[in-house]
Design a protein that fits this description.
- With 31 residues, the chain is mostly helical.
- The protein has 1 helix and no strands.
- The chain is rod-shaped.
- It starts with 13 loop residues before the first helix and ends with a helix.
- The model has no long low-confidence stretch (mean pLDDT 77).
């Protein structure tokens, strides 16, 4: 699997961590 093309799906990538953090923040705001 080409890590570069799907980096945003890689749990180890910063982009993934940022996306998860943003998602959790939205959940808390709308909870």
């Amino acid at each position: 699997m080409p890590g570069d093309s799907v980096g945003y799906l890689d749990p180890r990538s910063q982009s993934f961590k940022h996306a998860v953090a943003d998602f959790m923040t939205r959940i808390e705001e709308h909870g």
